[in-house]
Amino acid sequence: MTLDDYTTDPKKRGSLILALRRTIVSEFTAEDWKEFGYLSGHTEYIQGHKRLIRSLSWGDEDYGQCVLQTLEHLFREDMVAVEQLINHAKLTSLLLRDSAELSIFVLSGLESVKSEAPTGLSSGDVVLRALNDAEHLMQVSGPVSAVDRLHTVLHGYFRSLCIEEGIAVADDASLTALFKILRQEHSVLQSLGSYDKDLVRVLQGFAQAIYALNSLRNNGSVAHPSEDLLGEAEAHLAVNASRTIFNYISAKVGH
């Protein structure tokens, strides 16, 4: 049974939403929300919510309602993100106390993926953890899961860099489009020193790699139904390409 199937029952769906709200209100910090936003691809919604982080930080009475609004959004838009919450290190054991039947949606053997994030986590830290976790995912769950996760996290990272720099981006901008905008408009990527022309060619090669990663994620991973999935060697190639791109951009922007 999938989580989508499970939540077609209105009572089970409602019970799960309320159980998640209770555990999140009890356990989540602002850093947990930030990390989850980057890992799930919902950083724009979470950081753009007018009250979610603010009400948590100030201990306001409407925080529970803000959490409920966020959960309702996730249940409408992205059940994969809901599964990530169910498997969050701070939430899983408490959720299982409420409802043992949720154990069928708990991923086994992914302790490093679910480990608690350190305080002061930056967007770059989140991506680096996800890159490391992807290698573990390939060993435990197979390579295709890692490719989809990396695409989601890099997409959130590039978008956050644009927002930090004050660069306007479309809500539906793809990973490829975000990387192109960063190359063209981010201040630290405007001048690359004495070897500017050659390095621009390297960045153009990165752009082609980003385009390919976009296609691999859409057609060769579990992001969408497909009978022709990536093999292990090809998934490792995608992970290593993602790591190279992240390492360079992170070194340039400083986080």
Automatic annotation (TrEMBL):
Taxonomic superkingdom: Bacteria
InterPro entries for the chain: Abi-like_C, AbiJ_NTD5
Residue ranges of the TM segments: none
Pfam families in the cross-refs: Abi_C, AbiJ_NTD5
Residue ranges constituting the Abortive infection protein-like C-terminal domain according to the UniProt record: 180-249
Domain spans labelled AbiJ N-terminal: 11-93
Protein name: Abortive infection protein-like C-terminal domain-containing protein
